[in-house]
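Problem: given the chain below (532 residues), write out its structure.
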Amino acid sequence: MKSSFLMRFHNLQDSIRKAVALSATLLPFCVMAQNPVGIFENHMDIGHPKLTGSARYDEASQTYYISGAGSNIWFNRDEFQYIYKKLGGDFCLTADFEFTGDTTGAVGHRKIGWMIRESADEGSASASACKHFDGLIVLQWRPFNGMFMRDPEEERYYPKKGGQTIQLERVGKVITMRIAHPGEPLQLVGSYETETLNGEVMAGLYICSHDSSVVANAKVWNVRIDKPVNQSYSSNPHAVPPNMNVVFGSRLEVVDVASGMRHVIREEPKRFEAPNWMPDGKKLLFNEGGSLFTVDINGGEPQKLNTGSVAGNNNDHAISFDGKMLAISSHRQGKPEGGSTVYIVPLAGGEPKLLTENTPSYLHGWSPSGKDVLIVAKRDGSKVFNLYKVSVTDGKETALTHNLTGHVDGPEYSPDGKFVYYNANVSGTMQIWRMRPDGSDKEQLTFANYHNWFPHISPDGKWMAFISFPDNIDPDAHPAYKEVTLKVMSLTEPKSPRVVAYLYGGQGTINAPSWSPDSKRIAFVSNSEPAH
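Solution.
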């Protein structure tokens, strides 16, 4: 009897232990939505590391801080700390990563990066964009639950070293990893076609110390989750609103040029465009739905700017160098090609003065003297756009280019008035040029296989910002919703352009002058995902 009792007792103990182990295994699935961090739905340890990880989001700097232990992310099971949200469809994940804290004696294969997983199971199918402590950069994946992780060298992918910006993208069944050192374009690391990670997945940031007895730390910033769609849009560079059957959400952002740190000021599930700095540097001016609005640099509710009866404003607006006047483009019904017309109005608001009777006319910049503005227009039956200088006194137009083919756009004066910067397609790619204010001495400034648009000169005259489109679009178009880069280029030293932001955008990103008055920051609009 005693032996039978003890047997039953030990069996009960064993059942309790198994129940506890099972509940521990199932617990993550029960609490997956209870620990939101920033834009992510949850954070948790995967695989029960011996030391508990953590995650937090600093709203002021818009930076994520993540800590985690774990023996490895390899073989047929993983241990790490994970911050994630569930995503379906195509998406593009981009962020900057850096190990922090005491790294004395850190194992070389300590890992941070982006990961997508089929589930929270420790042996889940997954794909990881990995940055190791020793500099190794690699895309690794587990094809099916419980299988060993695939070594990328088996698939003829060649690991790279270093890199701060990491991108993981899924388009259909294809998962692709890219990296970039600060200031450089993104480079391909590798890609593969998945059979298990093509539905709704967990997607997010992770850290693994690769040492069960140590907690590793990292910070992650410029975190962006974008959801592009694969379909063709209108290539009409001046369609307002764009001739598209989808509208994306918009983010109003500011980037510090020196550090590359980005800050989101406003985000909405609708379209707004072309931020411009107000003279005091405390507010931004942008267009939305045919009107212009100002918003505090720290966020808050936008305030509508009074433009009287002119209510078809597009994304071309510029403030005079003395900060007193505003030039705008607005559309008039019944006029050719949408009827874009240029007006001027006091920056404080009022009834605008018509400046260009003929259409189409698109405003782009003021002269430092305030006596004329620069426009892009078609005149005298021309089929292509050319650049013109227009007197604000009498509306007299002076042609600065006389192109019969190709496209020109985005003219803007340098602060000293010595040059007009613009973009032009002369040889099959859109590049940045400059000329004298009378149209003479035209000089090409950029030479690349990218299509470069909208040069904006910093108030101190030392830098030029512009947007680069991929080479697979029409060089004469600047469509919305593309993977583009925001770049700066020195005008005082012979240096190559430097990337300051990787984003999803294009039309409306930096159509208007975008530099802060102190020449340290640039405002722009990026797009996030289709609005619903």
